[in-house]
Amino acid sequence: MTVTGWLTIALFAVLLTALAIPFGSYLANVYSGKRVFLTPIFGGPERFLYKVLRVDPNREQDWKSYAKSLIVFSLAGWLLLYLILRTQDAFFVPHVLNPLGFESAPWNVTFNTASSFMTNTNWQYYSGETTMSYLSQMIGLTVQNWLSAGVGIVVAIALIRGIIGRTGKSLGNFWQDLVRTILYVLAPLSVLAAIVLVSQGVIANFSHYLTVHTVTGLTQTIAMGPVASQEAIKMVGTNGGGFFNTNSAHPFENPTAFTNFFEMLLVLIIPAALVFAYGRMTGNRRQGYAIYATMILMFLGAAAVAYIAEAHGSPAQHAAGLHTHVIAGSSGGNLEGKEQRFGIAGSALFDVVTTVTSCGAVNSAIESFTGIGGAVPFANLSASEVIFGGVGTGLYSILLYVLLAVFIGGLMVGRTPEWLGKKLEAREIKLAGLGILITPLAALLATALATASHAGRESISKAATGPQGFSESFYAYLSQANNNGSAFAGYTGFIQPNAGNVGSHGVTFADLLGGFDMLLARYVPILFALAVAGALAGKRVTPAGLGTMRTDNGTFVVLLIGVIVLVGALTFFPALLLGPVVQGLTSHLY
Amino acid sequence: MSTQTPAAPERQQTPAGRERQAISLFQRDIVWRALLDSFKKLDPRVQVRNPVMFVVEIGSVITTVTWLIQVFGGNSLGGGHEPAWYTFVIALWLWLTVVFANMAEAFAEGRGRAQAETLRAMRKETIAKMRDGSTKAAAELARGDIVIVPAGELIPGDGTVIEGIATVDESAITGESAPVIRESGGDRSAVTGGTRVTSDEIVVEITQEPGKSFLDRMIALVEGAARRKTPNEIALNILLAALTLIFMIVVATLRPFGLFAHTPISETTLIALLVALIPTTIGALLSAIGIAGMDRLVRRNVLALSGRAVEASGDVDVLLLDKTGTITIGNRLASEFVPMPGVPESELAEVAQLSSLADETPEGRSIVVLAKQYGIREHDMSTLHADFVPFTAQTRMSGVDIDGRRLRKGAGDAIVELVNREGGSPPPELQAQLDRIGREGGTPLAVARDNQVLGVIYLKDTIKEGMRVRFDHLRAMGIKTVMVTGDNRLTAAKIAEESGVDDFLSEATPEAKLELIREQQSDGRLVAMTGDGTNDAPALAQADVGVAMNTGTQAAREAGNMVDLDSNPTKLIEIVEVGKQLLITRGALTTFSIANDVAKYFAILPAIFVGTWATGVGGHESKSPLHVLNVMGLGSPRSAIVSAIIFNAIVIPLLIPLALRGVRYRPIGASALLRRNLLIYGLGGIIAPFIGIKLIDLVVHNLLGG
Question: Cβ of B479 and A416 within 8 Å?
Fold first, then answer.
């Protein structure tokens, strides 16, 4: 461990908070329909889009109508993406947008990929630079990066409207929320991010891949492509699907320690700001602060554990009598699978940032982390993406947990539970309970199917034995069910003997199981969150008094952390024991 | 105003906090009946209503079948070579878990039933005398029948007195031995079937349908027969069912996970783990908590007509309290003599005393008492040869005629009129004093001798002792108190300030009261009130918690959702506390139940995975790396699982007393209360089972002989 390492983590938390508070106010204004400084620029395009989409932005939707629009929109997006990916070699290849003439990936892998990008998961069984044409990357995957992020955010906004709604059943208008999200939130951030990234060396071109001769005399192919634009939305929208196979470890995606820090900020800025926006929209900023405190405490806890574990080094290093402390030119600790330019702190923090959110980008190999360091992403995923979580997803998920915490805590102060003045009754508990249940259940059931069946075990990498095989499988479905997309390497659903998909085939079982896992764990909770919003909207509000349980103080933060940890731990403890825990407790290598 | 109606002998009000004797849990017949019921309730048709315990029962059946298969030489289900005795022990304790849960409910019901028995004994078959001279069996009386009840007879059914006045012994339902007055007309017209008329004769119009008397309802309520799940109970049940579902999936998927790790896990062990994880503690105690809440109210002589009302009382935000009888002791007492210019104070005092000698009202008596302080000796009516002039609504004054002199006291304007008629002229000072006293919240009584006004008696409302403390207590609970009075604004403000009540409604009419309740409710507040008169019925019905006084009219009793048999308006405070206790107990035991799971995981999982991925290199180590998770150092895998299951079962009977008594409510503010309960039931719930399971394991492990 180094002072610089700890300072990096501390500085990150401070900067994030400092940026997220004003950005949260901005978001609250955007979604309250107020004029913001970008209105003069985007007001015209906004009205134009409504005209093109033939949307009346003033038409209020109840939860069912809102959900219907969302599902129709998502389904259309899925079909479009599937078509684009399956036809990338259909027209006159090679051409400028498919210079290497890549064939389309088979149907099963494409099903998985389309589901993955549609659901903001960005789980990738494929390697970008050997599978996807520039066209597929740009109008297929990148577009979905925008849209899936937008869908996540609008659900959170609709839920907030339900929570604060005083009259009627309206949750706003899906199309208006989506258009505003894209124009006023994602576009400015992405443009800014892309410019900064390009300035640091991230590439943006349509060039043919370069062939270079290395100093040792070998030939090497260097992949090219329109990376910067996709990289920007990949982080801003907590998507995480890399342009290249090695994701943010690749120097064209994440060239410097500065871009590493910058990219981490991009990942968390919207999820963090949305929490503050929530506080503002409820009319009590402390509501937002309490949730933010919950998130940042759990986040810093995870970051500290990961950093300490990685800086300490692996048991194998200690067993071999190797030095793991800081020596000149090395940050010490467990550097296996890490980039020297990011160091231990930069890798551990990046890992935590992208696994607490549904980003899932990686700048180091998670499977090479130490047992405890590797258990951190497992734990983050077990918390069901509520520590910041995905854009929008994190907020609406944690709000369902808040509802649960208020119900249990509210009873303990001697009143029938109420949340921001609204009584929580059987209907809300049922909907929130089911909404929370789906993700862990999808993860557990898929893992059970995958580990119990021969078809499932096919996907485990040949090198992995014992608990490592279990960890790979468990992580794969935990990650897909949480719409995260990071991988504990090894686990595969796509056999690709040659670049360009020549002779490739998918592992149907893993592709379909994962695909359905992602779709289920994305849309079912969304529907429940919207239904909760519908149930809460228009409920009578009881003014708070001395006897009312407060949801904006330290006691509630402790209760909320307790509920999140307990639900996660009780659900996943047995499975975690058989994977990362057993590996962390032994010096035996699997 | 001073009234001359003879004061009805008010029944002694029971002091607040008085409780009916709690029926001991360990009365012999209750215990036997409860034990018997615990087994009767094993009927799956009963269990299916409680999803958590139903899962346990199914688990018990499966493990029992497994054990029988093993006994007859078969293999245990699902691999994992468990001996038959192990399956038997687990099955036994699973059955006991269900039985303990039933016992909790049976005990709670048993107590209520014992109370119901006493009530039922009163429901004797009486023959009602109809007004037309015929007779009818009491059970056949219908709404609208009119019966005559002479002294010494039981009133055959609930009704309203339409003629006459009588004293009635209601001790059977209220537990209070002093008889009460029941009369036609006023606010004391309701009579209850099963009570006995002790003097005079009354004509009663029956207001109940056959078999739906107050007594019938009371019996059904305390027995729990009419018990329906309350909204919050339903919501909590859903939460428990959701948790049960999660754990079912967790346990079901553990089997393939185990097989992947070459660790077959027997059906018995999986079921044991499932039962340990699902929230059996709260699942077992939930209905007992609800029944006990009702029971606690009954012991305070309050009948809640629905469980929903008890729950709502915990939520009350605003309490409407009638000034008279609740905040002030019903009567105004003389506190000062204000003489007119030129009149000695002692002269005024003497005349005031003489005019009040025959006045038996509390006001009249208080004047006599105050006059004594002026050194005026007591006169004896009989030696004075005085003629008593009683109060009438027309004259609005009373007094005596002595030796041809007319001494009068009465309402200011009535006295002014009298003096004017007699040719005198009231001094200008009089009006000023009358106004001042009225402004200060008092009631002025002018005193005149023939055509001369001597002065004014200052009658003051006396606030009951300890009211300020009670209001502070309520404020700490987060409840706003509103005093309702017919007084003018100034008077009301003064009394409100003196008593410490938060707000007041002056010059209140029944309509204004109803309007106030509606207004509070539309702001989202829950309103509680007490009432007795027919006037109060609409407001009682509108309030979320309406407590009708048992002395009140039948209309009031039907409109409210609770009846206070003691007719003590301050009882509302206790009702609110019982409601809060009920909710806190639910929340606390839910938290405790879930928090317990952590320790159970640490007991059962290392036991299951004792040999999983053992890294036995060269025979050094043949244990699983997971053995370090056996933090409790439990003796053996089987004893660990058995101990966890035993703990899970016996924690239920251990918590029955808490469930029935309720977690104590302290008015320390919501945040402090939450912190406190989180610490006790959350943190305590995590720690307690570690100790409990370890202790049980010490015994079990030794019994198993290593």
Answer: no
